[in-house]
Amino acid sequence: MSGVYLSTENQPFCKGCGHTLVGRAIEKALGNLENLDPLDLVVVTDIGCIGIIDKQFKSHTVHGLHGRSVALATGISMGLSDPSKKIIVFIGDGGATIGLHHILEAAHLNINMTVLVHNNMLYGMTGGQPSGLTPQGFKTLTMPDGRMDHGTDLCQLVHSAGAAYARRLYAMGDISEVLEEAFKVDGFSLVEAVEFCPSHGIKFNPGKKLYELTEKAGLLPILLENNKAPHISAEKVDGESLFTPVKEVKAEFSHNLDGRISLILAGSAGEGVQSAAELLAVAAMSCGLSVTKKGSYPVTVGVGFSLAELIISTDKIDYTGISKINAALVTSVDGLKKGLSKIENMTDGTLYLDSSLEAPETATKVEINNYRKPMGPRSASLLQAANFVKETGFIPMEAFYKALAASRISKAIPREKLEKALKELN
Ligand code: SF4
After folding, report:
1. What atom of ligand 1 comes closest to residue 15's alpha carbon?
2. What span, in angstroms and rounded, lies between the C-alpha atoms of 353 and 376?
3. How far, in Å, are 39, 136, 184, 200 from residue 87 at the CA level?
4. Torsion over CA of 214, 216, 222 and 228, rounded to 10 degrees?
5. Greatest CA span in the chain, whole angstroms?
6. Residues 259-302: pLDDT tens digits?
7. What is the pLDDT of residues 177-213, one digit of tens each?
8. Protein residue closest via CA to atom 6 of ligand 1
9. Residue 352: is its pLDDT beyond 60?
10. pLDDT number for residue 232
11. Considering only CA atoms, which of 139, 154, 55, 135 is closest in space to residue 95?
């Protein structure tokens, strides 16, 4: 059955998993908050069994690297700076171990968020290895005689760091009231739900009860509170701004777009592909269009491909993925290889290709030009982007030149140089 916040009651966990119970309590707890629209809720998760709960939600969801969900949530909370938005992190005890300092920093700053730590005392997704929160005596795959030293008391740690609210409880019965209480806290709240993992925990600790295990290890249910003002925004700390303010792009030009264009800019790392895509994005936004941009490149700096995906639309863009592109702007072999599958799927639009490249098989129109020559390889993508605007006319060239003038690129490539290079193209 679909709820207001969760699309289904069927949780994706093993039979008897404690995560299921917490997942079910969430719908009720959120429903008891005053007028919380699902789109005012941001759910942040990372790797681990509990991380897959995000696909159940009808809210905004962000799925990060293992242990980094609290760091992501901190950025989201500080960036939004809006107490009416609810930011909830679901993390396992494994993720909490990996990202412990992110949790402590968020607690220390008393960032507005609720962190639900699902402590089943092991890494469930990888087969039951112990985490930093595994209590003394608890047996796991790699500690068959039980943990010998004390596990981390997360609630005490975050309380010492300054968390407004820290609570440990057993994930049993209806815990929605506690979750509701945590969600209502101004500032940082953490709920550590102690659970059993039927797939990996019970088989190594047969017949044990949750309270027996945690009582013996000194990890009993607890509530710890600090009276501290929430850290709503990072805009000013001691009079200094922590962030460079986001520049608003004002809509000052008109456009000729009907619907949307999905395109890729593909070239080599270090050749300005991402900057050219950003310029195109800003220019389109200055014409009142909605834009999303996704950049990808290898972790090694300045080596390999660089690919930018852009969606430019007259309507709001809800989903930022691209299944089919209408245009591809390609300047190098690296870019061509990376964008090939999308290019081969093109059925309309144009492939703009540098003359140094061999045209791949495609049903779409191919336009070949020497983009790498007029201003050098490092500006080939910029020239291609400018040419794309000129050829399609979906936005005025003035919008592109204005975006260029406001960017750092304009120092090396002023408008006159770009105009001259555009004339040199066929
Ligand atoms: S492996 Fe354990 S923690 Fe993961 S879903 Fe199954 S029971 Fe739950």
Report:
1. 7
2. 15
3. 11, 32, 11, 30
4. -100
5. 80
6. 999 999 999 999 999 999 999 999 999 999 999 999 999 877 77
7. 999 999 999 999 999 999 999 899 988 999 888 888 8
8. 14
9. yes
10. 65
11. 154
Alpha helix ranges (H) inside 129-175: 154-161
pLDDT at 219: 84
Ligand 1 atom 2: residue of nearest CA: 197
Domain locations in the chain as residue ranges: 18-225, 260-424
- State which fold the 18-225 domain adopts: Rossmann fold (3.40.50)
Distance CA 169, CA 182 (A): 12
Does residue 35 or residue 59 have the better pLDDT?
59
- pLDDT of residue 376 exceeding 80, the answer is yes
Residues within a 6 A CB radius of ligand 1: 13-14, 17, 19, 49, 120, 124-125, 197-200
Q: How far is the CA of 302 from the centre of ligand 1 (A)?
A: 41
Q: Ligand 1: which atom is nearest the Cα of residue 200?
A: 2
Confidence class for position 228, pLDDT limits 50, 70, 90: confident
**61 DSSP β-pair partners:** 43
Please tell us whether the domain made up of 260-424 is placed in CATH 3.40.920.10.
Answer: yes
CA of 234 to the centre of ligand 1 (A): 37
Of all protein residues, the one whose alpha carbon is nearest to atom 8 of ligand 1 is 17
| Nearest-atom index, ligand 1, CA of 13 | 5
Q: Is the pLDDT of residue 245 over 90?
A: no
Same-fold call for 18-225 versus 260-424: no
**Which residues are 193's β-sheet partners?**
118, 169
- List pLDDT tens digits, range 103-119: 999 999 999 999 999 99
- 73, HSE (Cβ side, Cα atoms, 13 Å): 36
Reported pTM: 0.67
**pLDDT exceeds 70 at position 242:** no
Q: Residue 232: name the closest of 187, 189, 190 by CA.
A: 187
Q: Which residue's CA is the closest to the ligand 1 atom numbered 1? A: 124
Q: Which atom of ligand 1 is nearest to the CA of 18?
A: 8
